[in-house]
């Protein structure tokens, strides 16, 4: 007995407690409670909240600078040389198609038209007489043919005279607004003299460039938003009208032309615009923001497949409100990902899924 006490007195109290536990652990039936229930705890499925994976396009907003022109625009030049006798409209006036803007001196041309009409009437009367006397044999077929040809020549001369007369007036080819002109009555003009401009600005054509990356993702009829650079200017809606057939090898962009309604006449040709265009670029899995985890090797999610979880690496593509577009080949549409309980997850752990709201 004394030997036992002396042995105990030679060890610290903590050492004795450790030895006692070690001895108890070697006795049959003395397994710890944790060891007895460990296997059952390992096999028991962990409750987690999950949510299904959806796929949706990546929304890309493109902003570009565009330059506008009128839907129809023309610079007027005279067809002939002459003296201006009248300017009927001034800058800013609205003109109708066919309305005369500048009138040149046309006295000689009017006389030429009258002379051509007289010659035509004479030729027609001569041809009529020859036809009436044809049966009597007093007019040969050759003379009749010459009279017929004379009528045709006279008609052509009249048409040419009328065209020359038309050239003496400069008319609007379509409805629009007149631009500034430096032409006054008495001025001498020729075919190289710029008279004025006409713009049909009921709608504008806005041209801009898009990176070649988005070629094939823009279609005719696609909506765009157009706004001026003035602070607080309202947005105007338009649609894509034309897409160029080639990419510029220097800028790696392609041209797009859109049509913008301007019936209220607030915009002007030549203005520059800020273009906003929303595009859908590919389809990607979208997961809840709370499902995304980060590790030493990057982002990942816990995916549920067959009642167990697995770690799936992902690459963040775009952040949305409460959701994240990711890139991964192991997240098919409809697969569930863990949104709550991620801190308890490990590879291959059985889980009981509770669908998230």
TrEMBL record:
Q: The Multidrug resistance protein MdtA-like barrel-sandwich hybrid domain covers which part of the protein?
A: 72-192
**Location of the CusB-like beta-barrel domain:** 206-278
**Keywords of the record:** Coiled coil
| Coiled coil residues, start to end | 113-164
**GO MF term (any one):** efflux transmembrane transporter activity
InterPro entries named in the record: Beta-barrel_RND_2, MdtA-like_BSH, RND_pump_MFP
Name one matching Pfam family: Beta-barrel_RND_2
**What NCBIfam families does UniProt report for this protein, alphabetically?**
RND_mfp
Q: Has the keyword Transit peptide been applied to this entry?
A: no
Q: Name one GO cellular component term.
A: efflux pump complex
**Family statement:** Belongs to the membrane fusion protein (MFP) (TC 8.A.1) family.
Q: Quick check: keyword Lipoprotein in the entry?
A: no
Stated name of the protein: Multidrug resistance protein MdtA
Task: Report the PANTHER family cross-referenced here.
Answer: BLL4320 PROTEIN, MULTIDRUG RESISTANCE PROTEIN MDTA
């Amino acid at each position: 007995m004394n030997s036992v006490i002396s042995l105990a007195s030679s060890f610290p109290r903590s050492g004795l407690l450790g030895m006692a536990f070690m001895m108890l652990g070697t006795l049959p039936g003395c397994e710890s409670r944790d060891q007895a229930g460990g296997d059952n705890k390992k096999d028991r499925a962990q409750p987690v909240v999950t949510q299904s994976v959806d796929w949706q396009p990546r929304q890309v907003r493109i902003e570009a600078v565009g330059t506008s022109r009128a839907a129809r625009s023309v610079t007027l030049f005279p067809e002939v040389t002459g003296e201006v006798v009248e300017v009927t409209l001034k800058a800013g006036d609205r003109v109708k198609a066919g309305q005369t803007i500048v009138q040149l001196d046309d006295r000689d041309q009017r006389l030429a038209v009258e002379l051509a009409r007289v010659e035509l009437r004479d030729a027609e009367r001569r041809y009529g007489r020859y036809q009436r006397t044809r049966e009597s044999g007093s007019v040969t077929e050759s003379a009749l043919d010459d009279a017929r040809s004379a009528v045709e020549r006279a008609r052509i001369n009249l048409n040419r005279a009328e065209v020359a007369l038309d050239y003496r007036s400069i008319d609007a080819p379509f409805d629009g607004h007149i631009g500034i002109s430096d032409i006054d009555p008495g001025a001498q003009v020729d075919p190289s003299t710029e008279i004025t401009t006409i713009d049909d600005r009921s709608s504008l054509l806005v041209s801009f460039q898009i990176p070649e990356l988005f070629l094939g993702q823009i279609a005719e009829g696609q909506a765009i938003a157009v706004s001026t650079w003035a602070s607080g200017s309202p947005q105007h809606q338009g649609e894509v009208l034309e897409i160029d057939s080639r990419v510029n090898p220097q800028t790696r962009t392609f041209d797009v032309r859109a049509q913008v309604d301007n019936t209220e006449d607030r915009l002007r040709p030549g203005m520059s615009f800020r273009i906003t265009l929303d595009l859908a670029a590919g389809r990607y899995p979208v997961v809840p923001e709370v499902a995304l985890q980060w590790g030493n090797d990057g982002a990942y999610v816990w995916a549920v497949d067959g009642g167990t979880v697995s770690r799936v690496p992902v690459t963040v593509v775009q952040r949305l409100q409460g959701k994240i577009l990711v890139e991964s080949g192991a997240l098919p549409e409809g697969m569930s990902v863990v949104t709550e309980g991620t801190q308890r997850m490990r590879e291959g752990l059985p889980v009981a899924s509770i669908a998230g709201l």
